[in-house]
Amino acid sequence: MCKDKLSAHLFFIFGLRTLLGCHRLYKLSIKGRIGKLPEFFHFSSSIAKIAFKASLLEEDPMATLENLPKLSSLTLFDSTFVGEEMACSSKGFPRLLYLKVWGLSNLKRWRIDAGAMPKLCRLVIAHCEQLEMLPDGLKFITTLQKLNVRWMSDDFKDRLRDEGDDFYKVRHVPDIKLD
């Protein structure tokens, strides 16, 4: 990396950490490559809404973001994460109400452990063409009221219909929309 690019990258990393540490930061939207998320303790404890677009994260962002105590809304959009596997651990995302996973074209597997996202009400999954199936752990999220699956393969959507292989994971969800 040339000196100018390295300087700009270091400035961005330290600038991002400074911004994330602002105590009154409530909402954050980041567009563009950031490479790697800072550790969760660099984030303001008051942050409630985060949206990423085209961040090209190679490491699973859930491991960091699930530790934010007041996070209620999370959008991962358009190549935010370029890896193949995401995991949400037990007790992760304690206040998350809304999650949008859109355009993660390399995502193949997504694990949600029992106890994760205990307040999730709305989930949108779209344009994740490689995603093989819904996470099994969705069956434990009894608060889920709305599931919107858009622009996914017919095979993926068929797994969610009555009698489909994944229907048992979401049978408790009153509003399921398959577009």
From TrEMBL:
Domain of life per record: Eukaryota
The name this protein goes by in its record: Disease resistance At1g50180
Organism: Olea europaea subsp. europaea
Lineage, highest ranks first: Eukaryota, Viridiplantae, Streptophyta, Embryophyta, Tracheophyta
